[in-house]
Amino acid sequence: MTTTELDAAGVLEPSLRTAYRRCREINARYGRTYFLATRMLTPAQRPAVHALYGFARWADEIVDDQGDGRTLAQRRAALAELGADLAEGFAQGHSRHPVLAAVVDTVARYDIDRGYFADFLTSMRMDTEVREYATFAELARYVRGSAEVIGLQVLPVLGTVTPRAEAEPHAAALGEAFQLTNFLRDVGEDLDRDRVYLPLEELAAFGVDRERLQHCRQRGHTDHALRAALAHLVSRTRATYRRAAPGIAMLAPVSRPCVATAFDLYQGILDEIEAADYRVLDRRVVVPKTRRLAVALPGFGRAVLARWA
User: Fold this and answer.
1) Which pLDDT belongs to residue 156?
2) Which end of the chain has fewer CB within 10 Å, C or N?
């Protein structure tokens, strides 16, 4: 993180600056699309967004890092310890944790609801306990904590031109849309972790069950039934983006280019899934660099103009 960003955000204490820099490194390493969009925010906004991403990724790594050799019980214990450390940080107003220090500071600066973090950790614990979801209604509790609250955490940093409560449903819907997109892109990787996030009831309507998913994964093949099911779920996810879209105009003008760019790039993943004829079990579909630049460069231009308006 540049000194300019930290100075602009009013982060002056040396150890706190180190924590924010660590969060930025995590964002740059693991969230390429998200990080690219974040560059369109004002320098003063970026450290807070990096801190929120850093926390989410830190917890996610506790759950999903398959190379660390930890058992499920050890993962649950590590999540519990993270939650306790965060609660202690909130209570004391500071933390020595390499990531939580920045998170605690961000929550205080922007008056972010601490309950969002408890909801998030609840969903992370679900990843150590739940292997599949029968319906969208069942999945909704997980998505609330794993995605919707991310949009709600970031909203105070982005700012709004309407009462925040009016923008919140759209911010939550955008988090949901991003998460559903990830579920569709990462079907194969999730299967390898013994998880299915696509509701079984939705798949069953097209003659697809967990065993069929596993068979297609092993063969690296998307059959007709699975292709139809994925097409249905892509369509449903696009409807979620439509619910989220009105919220962009409710944001502070300097924040709109960032969110609009992330909105377009993530929807682009759905386009690429369709262009690949729904072959998501033998590859990780990504938005080509040329398209990312075609979306991002105008976004940067709009961001600069918004700061001068």
Assistant:
1) 97
2) C
What is the end-to-end Cα distance of the chain in Å, rounded?
26
DSSP structural state of residue 148: I
* Residue 67, C-beta contacts closer than 8 angstroms, at least 6 positions apart: none
pTM assigned to the model = 0.91
Q: Are the C-beta atoms of 257 and 303 separated by less than 8 Å? A: yes
Q: How far apart are CA 161 and CA 143, in angstroms?
A: 27
Backbone angles phi, psi at 39, to 5 degrees: -65, -15
In 186-288, which ranges are continuous DSSP H helix?
Answer: 187-192, 200-204, 210-219, 224-244, 256-275
Residue percentage of the chain with pLDDT more than 90: 78
Gap between the Cα atoms of 82 and 85, Å rounded: 5
As a whole number, mean pLDDT of residues 44-55 equals 95
Q: Worst-scoring range by mean pLDDT, 86-95, 203-212, 278-287?
A: 278-287
Cβ atoms of 240 and 234 within 8 Å: the answer is: no
Contact 280, 182 (CB under 8 A): no
The CA distance from 195 to 63, in Å, is 12
